[in-house]
Amino acid sequence: MKFDEHPTVLRYREAISQDPIKDKQFLTVSRLRQLALEAGADDAGCVSLNRSELDGQRSDILQAFPQAKTLLSFVYRMNRENIRSASRSVANLEFHHSGDEVNDIARRIVKSLEKQGIPAINPAMGFPMETERWPNKMWVISHKPVAEAAGLGRIGLHRNVIHPVFGNFILLGTLVLDAEIDEESRPIEYNPCLECKLCVAACPVGAIAVDGHFDFSACYTHNYREFMGGFTDWVETIVTSRNTKQYRQKTNDAESVSMWQSLSFGANYKAAYCLAVCPAGDDVIGPFLNDKKEFIKRLVRPLQDKQETVYVVAKSDAEDHVIRRFPQKKVKRVNNSLRPTSIDAFLKGLPHVFQKGKSAKLNATYHFTFTGTENIHATVIIHDRQLKVLQGHTGYPDFQLTADSKTWLAFLAKEKRLAWALIQRKIRFKGPPGMLLAFGRCFLA
């Protein structure tokens, strides 16, 4: 049988001749939004791939779906009181089931679109991710910028999207479509964030500062203890323990059971208190406005007063914060699991592990020259507790360091000692040795 005479080919060509619009893959935003609501979403909006808000991830989206033209963003409401509960099992059950529902909603929309001949994909709401990329960006799409562009809210002080009606008690989903749309959604004109600072007060590790600074490493180390890096640290604890007794000295039975629970039922968040106490949003703000003291007593105090283990990296800003602010909470030191596997990852990761408090007395410019497998020049400026990482050598350096790329990464991973690297001339520096130590104090070890 000739290809052009195959029944499938004939039926398709006949259908297109009768309905030529079908092949143009053109959709209205109102229809897409209706599809999302019918599938179970609580709100939705659409943006074209060429929107400026997507400049930072456009190439990643096209890599995942080369024919991408439009993004459909939607929100799904979580049950507020579950998220507010001081019992982590209650809150995490809500996170897990809501996350599953977001993925199911996205699949239902894609299935409906495919029936209409519109190709589309639905990247995961959270997990699974492209783990082979670790420790670099593992996710296919960054949902928050898309949601902001689609008019579904704005990112608040706590770095979560706040919907103008539902508040931050939402999870986000995104679909990528091979279809043009008639018009685009636009960002809302104001930020629903009240800047009440309750998220600052509730955060057990001080990750959210009053001035807007966000300590990524503090949040990551504690809240995500049973995710990615925390899990690898736990595995290394097992491997490096000589026997059961030594393992139990490092990890108590409750922690082992908690890790089992995460492995069995899905990784559990240790905090997410910033979401729990946020009063923003039309549906949420009432109790806060009616009686702020009662709101704080009922929702903020139980989280602040809760006796729990808080995971921190030794000598970090987070450790100082817990000891000073929450003496009833137990501090447990763990290893920094944000280990770079390339010089590029090292430089891009510096802002994530920067310890603002530890940098208070340092004002200096560092020139880095990496050789070997990666030939990279970079400038790191620490001034007035602010960090800048620049490509190339800029300005006059107070300290210069030249290092073989592999040796430097091995040193960061604690696989090579600095003294050995200096003797072998694998790492060399020019400037006061104390400045290298001061630099190290500004970042997680």
UniProtKB/TrEMBL annotation:
<dbReference type="InterPro" id="IPR003033">
    <property type="entry name" value="SCP2_sterol-bd_dom"/>
</dbReference>
<protein>
    <submittedName>
        <fullName>4Fe-4S ferredoxin iron-sulfur binding domain-containing protein</fullName>
    </submittedName>
</protein>
<dbReference type="Pfam" id="PF02036">
    <property type="entry name" value="SCP2"/>
</dbReference>
<dbReference type="GO" id="GO:0051536">
    <property type="term" value="F:iron-sulfur cluster binding"/>
</dbReference>
<dbReference type="InterPro" id="IPR036527">
    <property type="entry name" value="SCP2_sterol-bd_dom_sf"/>
</dbReference>
<feature type="domain" description="4Fe-4S ferredoxin-type">
    <location>
        <begin position="184"/>
        <end position="213"/>
    </location>
</feature>
<keyword id="KW-0411">Iron-sulfur</keyword>
<dbReference type="InterPro" id="IPR017896">
    <property type="entry name" value="4Fe4S_Fe-S-bd"/>
</dbReference>
<keyword id="KW-0479">Metal-binding</keyword>
<keyword id="KW-0408">Iron</keyword>
<dbReference type="GO" id="GO:0046872">
    <property type="term" value="F:metal ion binding"/>
</dbReference>
<dbReference type="InterPro" id="IPR017900">
    <property type="entry name" value="4Fe4S_Fe_S_CS"/>
</dbReference>
